[in-house]
């Protein structure tokens, strides 16, 4: 005999609820598992994409990959990490500080409107300079990564204009010293002009003209494309002899890595 239909909706719902709930739970578990897989893939891709910069990029930026001999480069590049050698090591590079043959090179990708980049400039970089750069153990090389719009791009051009007159790091420090504790600083032409004056840029008219020109677009494009190829998601980002450091990190993160690399020389 065929079973009779149950006309009581409460009983039907009660009997049907457990399978429905179980199905919902199963779907959620599948969704969570899929999300976890996506996260893992993203992390792996970020690591894989964060690869080294080739000599073609350095040459396009006006750098000379043969600034030091191949023998000196091989000696200086001991302990290169998974990112490869991102250092340009160009003699006379206005956007670098420290000996061209320093055993450790820290490459910094930064945006002038990034508050965490400012914190690195204010709190971390001075100590690295005192402990390692001044003694010839560390070289710091700057890369522009303007990610916060046209004001960031204008500030990057301003930094290059200051570098053209030999006052890059002075301009860099003056700008970051005035950064707010949070949020993105205003980078109007007038404000950037004030930083140039504070930095001792000698020809302010030339500075303003170059800041508002496309003189440095090719150089900025090289840095930006390099960062994109590496998969850098935000600023600041660092490579220390090819070993990545991402985001705002305490001083010990930098010093422990630099000390280890120096010990491996």
From TrEMBL:
The keyword DNA damage does not apply. The lineage of its organism: Bacteria, Bacillati, Actinomycetota, Actinomycetes, Mycobacteriales. It comes from Tomitella fengzijianii. This is Disulfide bond formation protein. It comes from the Bacteria. PROSITE patterns: THIOREDOXIN_2 (PS51352). One of its GO terms (molecular function) is oxidoreductase activity. The chain crosses the membrane at residues 32-50. InterPro entries: Thioredoxin-like_fold, Thioredoxin-like_sf, Thioredoxin_domain. Residues 1-20, 58-83 are annotated as: Disordered. Belongs to the thioredoxin family. DsbA subfamily. Residues 59-263 form the Thioredoxin domain.
